[in-house]
Amino acid sequence: MFITFEGIEGCGKTTQAKLLASYLEAQGCKTLLTREPGGTSISEKIRTILLDVDHSSMLPETELLLYLASRSQHTAELIIPVLKEGYIVICDRYTDSTLAYQGGGRQMDMSTLLELTTFASYNLKPDIVLLIDISVQLAMKRINEKKHDRLEQETTEFYERTRKRFLDVANRESDRYIIINGDDDIESIHRVISKSVVQKMKDGLL
């Protein structure tokens, strides 16, 4: 029972992940909310390195390997054991972010990314991926309203490539992806998400 939230910066996925976790808990589901990069002590330290604005010289290959190191620790130490205990795990980003950000934004080789993400995630795939899709123009507006981390300093072109790759993957894997229009207000988006997840449960996916 593994649900992930994806989307470019500023899409609102973190807020929606928290709302869904609270909703499922209120329905009596054992639920764990976590995030990437992060989720464990080691992974959170790697997150600090990745998002530090002083690390603007970080190479794409270094960035990729740090994300994968964080994911490997997070998956083995936290996600897999909790899934085995019967929890629904909700994760703010997972492997699809690597395919979109490194594959689309950084334009790295997809076959290499697929092989490495499979290795780092122990072949674990989300049952549902909720992609909150917004325009890059709206994302930039939202990002500019707060203090930037390293990734939030990227160019419009970078985010256009990242968004396109998210949508490409979503269209190829429509059985597990749900694309959500992120332009609406927070409560309306939450209602769409909770209804979609409950319907998947009724359909026997979870």
Notable traits:
5-stranded parallel β-sheet; 206 residues; alpha/beta; 8 helices; single chain; Rossmann fold; globular
Protein architecture, described:
This protein is α/β, with parallel strands linked by helices. The chain has a single domain, classed as Rossmann fold. It is 55% helix and 13% strand. The protein has helices at residues 13-26, 41-51, 60-84, 95-105, 110-120, 136-143, 156-172, 186-202; strands at residues 2-6, 31-35, 88-92, 128-133, 177-181. A five-stranded parallel sheet has the order 2-3-1-4-5, with helices on both faces. Helix 1 crosses helix 8 (186-202) and helix 4 (95-105) packs across helix 7 (156-172). The longest helix has 25 residues, at 60-84. The protein is globular. The N and C termini lie close together (6 Å). The mean pLDDT is 93.
- Strand tally: 5
Specify the CATH architecture: 3-Layer(aba) Sandwich
Helix proportion: 55-70%
Biggest beta sheet summary: 5 strands, parallel
Strand content: 5-15%
Identify the strand order in the major beta sheet.
2-3-1-4-5
| Average pLDDT for all residues | 93
How many domains, in number, for the residues? Answer: 1
Low-confidence stretches: none
Gap between N and C termini: 6 Å
CATH classification, class level: Alpha Beta
The rough form would be described as globular
How does the helix and strand content classify structurally? alpha/beta
| Subunit arrangement of the protein | single chain
SSE run: EHEHHEHHEHHEH
Q: Could you give me the name of the CATH homologous superfamily?
A: P-loop containing nucleotide triphosphate hydrolases
